[in-house]
Amino acid sequence: MEDKDLLIEWAKRLQSLAQAGLIYGKDDFDLERYQEIRDISAEMMAYKSDLPLQKVKDLFCNEIGYQTPKLGTRAAIFKDDKILLVQENDGSWSLPGGWCEVNMAVKENCIKEAKEESGLDIEVERIIGIYDQNKHSEAIYPYNVIHVFFLCKPLGGEFKKNIETTTRKYFAYDQLPKNLSTDRNSLDEIKACFEAYKDPSFQVECD
């Protein structure tokens, strides 16, 4: 592991310990120390990620309770042996998906996000994989991110321009765009989607 990655992992661990201490600690002096540790962890993350300190604090230190990974979904929608990608506002391409809502089951969230970003109504067929994005993405996250990828079938629907995506398009594997949004889905993850689509006996992958 590179020094930069190692320091980020240390910052995450310190943040997690400090957050637990702020919840379960009783002594006022201990709580003050836990808060200082949390602030130091945010400064470490900002220094190594080149993000503004306040943005790191908003992302990294805005929760209460025991810290757990963020959970998101990605819909692998196939038609005629091609996979559907949506174009994000920054011009990159990704599978439709997003963070899980607190009042929705994971499968329901996948259906909702696919509709919002691609305009498609879908049928979720099965899970492709449950991936730790820290192992599949070069992006620097201030927290752990878990993505659940689902194999899906399109049922119909028209694309509507929205605040997140600008268009949608089906791609063959050998024609995937160069500018994939790798913080949302890596090339290896998309490859696994094609393998699951072609092989009914594909075994669910799990990090």
Automatic annotation (TrEMBL):
Keywords attached to this Swiss-Prot or TrEMBL record, sorted alphabetically, are: Hydrolase
Q: Does the keyword Hydrolase apply?
A: yes
Domain (Nudix hydrolase): give its ranges. 68-195
Pfam families linked to this entry: NUDIX (PF00293), Nudix_N (PF12535)
Q: Which GO terms describe its molecular function?
A: hydrolase activity
The record, for CDD domains, names: NUDIX_ADPRase (cd18889)
Q: Which cofactor does it need?
A: Mg(2+)
Instruction: Enumerate the InterPro entries for this protein.
Output: NUDIX_hydrolase-like_dom_sf, NUDIX_hydrolase_dom, UDP-X_N
**Does the record bear Hydrolase in its keywords?**
yes
Q: What is this protein called?
A: NUDIX domain-containing protein
**The organism of origin for this protein:** Lactobacillus xujianguonis
